[in-house]
Amino acid sequence: MKGFRARKLDPIYLFPIEELPVAVNYLKNLLPFLTEGLCNKCNKLLLNRVDLLDQELSYQDPQPLQVPDVHCCESTSSPANEDIDKYAYIPDECCGKKDNSDTHSIGSWNNGEKGECGSDTHSIGSWKNGEKGDCDSDTQSIGSWKDGENGRLEPVLCKSELEGDCDSDTQSIGSWKDGENGRMEPVMYKSELEVSTTSEAPNVRMSWADMAQENGRLEPVVYKNELEVATTSEAPNVRMSWADIARQNGKLEPVVYKSELEVSTTSEAPNVRMSWADMAQEEEDELQEYENSQQQECDPGGVGSEEKKKPELSRETREFIRFMNVQRKKDFVCLERIKGKTVNVLEGLELHAGVFSAAEQKRIVDFVFELQEKGSRGELKERTYTAPQKWMRGKGRVTIQFGCCYNYAPDRKGNPPGILRNEHVDPIPNLLKVMIRRLVKWHVLPASCVSDSCIVNIYDEGDCIPPHIDNHDFIRPFCTVSFLSECDIVFGSNLKIVGPGEFSGSAAIPLPVGSVLVLQGNGADVAKHCVPAVPCKRISITFRKMDEGKCPLGFVPEPDLLGIQPLPYESDESNVLNIQVKSLRDGGNSNLSEKREGILGRAPSDDLGSHSEPRQTTQGSHSDNGGSHVEPWQRARGTLSDNGSTHSEPRLTTRGAHSEPRLAAQTARGTSQSEAQQTAEGGSHSEPQEPSQETHSEPRPTSIGTPQSEPRQTPRRTPWSQQTNRPRESHSEPQVTSQETHSEPGPASIGTPQSEPRQTPRRTPWSQQTYRSREAYSEPQETSQETHSEPRPATIGTPRQTPRRTPWSQQTYKPGEAHSEPQQTSQETHSEPRPASIGTPQSEPRQTPRRTPWSQQTFRPRARRSVDR
Ligand SMILES: O=C(O)CCC(=O)C(=O)O
Ligand SMILES: [Fe+2]
């Protein structure tokens, strides 16, 4: 066949045949980067060649090739060019220049920028020059392009996206669009990928361990099972086998977990798998560059500035890959009955994993410890650093505030909760600004919400953050990044303090190490949140943007936080983070697996009828909030009846076999707002003290009867690059669903999209799911007040109930030394201590019984710290 005649000449065939699928996969997904700067024709050549290879490898009959002998406009009358013209529009600027014939090679072409073109043997794509507005048909192309306004190439998927000015393109695998800055912007849709490959999975895949670059030192490692997955898995495979990647410098051993490999072939879940030890090698990431730049400032031209070997992949490419690997969960559900309405109090929450690599986390954690040292030495502004008086368990945590100083509750000076406009703290350090940029660029925070303040929370074992709603001096969304150890964050409209560092609530969400929790909508404003006493040392950094009118006096926005734009790609919405919300409605036993089984085995009516522990909270009537307060915004939108005081006090129950009476502790700890305020006195308000909702600066609109499932019914979002506004903005309204719209209230579906539970008996293919249906069911919650007059909130934060090993923080944590194995126990679900999973995929710890012990990994805080607390 014609398509094979070039085989001998083609450099690509220098690859061992078994590596070709990987190479093709690689090429297909990275073409936008590889071809940047090439002329249209050469792009087309390259794409066609890759497509042909793919066909060959798929044992498909390659399409007849168009093999002109000349390139571009050398002779428009030549038969060859006629052939080309059938498939490609040849941009004017490409014509009239000397071609550089290379009839078959993928690897050689000319740069078309100045009108030079390499010759094209096969049509690769279809093109349109922006101004001309037409696009030719292309039956063999991988993509189609049009020129952007700035003259750069801009592939566009004609088939589904374009509005009639493009003809069909039957084999497209991708579409591109020029970003605002004129850079090429691949946009890959699953459906598009399906067209061109046999796999169901969109394969923005890099199992080329080698792909991850690292100075060209790595060998490509291709796992057979990875390749298998590429053609068989339903899961999206934006996959990198990082474990293999990072063996650079001989510092690290490759770590390949058998379980990882197993998972990669059997799991339906997306695998964003990074082993901490290996990931520590990402030297080219932005945080590293930040460090390099710092070093260079100190040592310009010196030893430190010795030029590094360029990685094989550009930083942009690697960033793209990592961005596509971010796992996200945006369908948290926990239904509560609030004033007669069914409300998903977790609406608007998002959890993003993989935004910060293990190496980056390590850097950040080191930096936080340095800050802590500085603070303890008095080298930070007075209001920047606050260490709690540790007079009892669960009391506070170290906080370091940047950008602004704020009170969670009124302080002894009479300052109300919120930003203290007259107080000044240190500006956000550069490293944390890098984090902020990452959060915006990687679609975690919207560009409209670039944080200009942050608070670092350093929790020692037993430290907590009490129930609170983040003040509305900060706009939504805001987010919290977790480090060092996993813990649960508890949500509920009516959180209660039931003991020192122990709180009752509706639902707990595990916060994996390195994850970013985004709070907005009901999750930020209807539900309170708290972190019960942590089982071992933990750090979180909360990033928030101040309301413009609330900034400290004289506040000047950071110039390098202005104008940050999200990466112009659509994030992989199918790359869903596998995290389950834990229901705390059954006395805080968050081990949902048994419950799920039970529920799944029952008829829906039973679910409702047999449910014993409804949540019937009355928004605004929390005892610790001063009684019958109803939010202005709730009144305004009429979502709550006016009888905000008719709240039957939930029984305070404690989990399991806890022997100590909670109420005694509760008394000591204080549950009332006023008492909470007192504990915040003295300026060291490191502990949020249940801010009253009156402090909210903005009324929160409520959307009555908003169909809960609506956002989830849209299979695909508008490509990021085409959005003027983030989809998240649509979350800003609390979703309060009136009971009327749900004539048959089902069980609350913690962790599931509202529309799914129980209605779909059989399992939806993973690729069509946004959640894991099996794990999604939780106990029923939605029952009427009449039948359940005594809702019992569960309690959380009672480490004593769960036998566990000595927490990590008690294991003589000595920065500067290798850590012993941290005992990452999540109080509810992990009866057995687990090693901290820095840099591991968040869903992984639950699937992987054991990882390399912490002590064998490379995390070593740099400096010794002796913080006097
Ligand atoms: O530590 C956390 O994860 C939560 C922090 C928090 O809620 C806050 O800073 O307001
Ligand atoms: Fe908070």
Automatic annotation (TrEMBL):
Designated name of the protein: Fe2OG dioxygenase domain-containing protein
Region called Disordered, residue ranges: 280-314, 600-869
GO-annotated molecular function: demethylase activity; mRNA binding
Family as reported in the entry's similarity comment: Belongs to the alkB family.
Signal sequence bounds: none
Source species, domain of life: Eukaryota
Stored InterPro entries: AlkB-like, AlkB-like_sf, ALKBH9B/ALKBH10B-like, Oxoglu/Fe-dep_dioxygenase_dom
Ranges of biased composition (kind: Polar residues): 615-626, 668-681, 703-712
TM stretches of this protein: none
Lineage of the organism: Eukaryota, Viridiplantae, Streptophyta, Embryophyta, Tracheophyta
Acidic residues: bias regions: 280-289
GO BP, one annotated term: mRNA catabolic process
Fe2OG dioxygenase domain boundaries: 450-547
Feature: compositional bias, Basic and acidic residues: 305-314, 600-614, 648-661
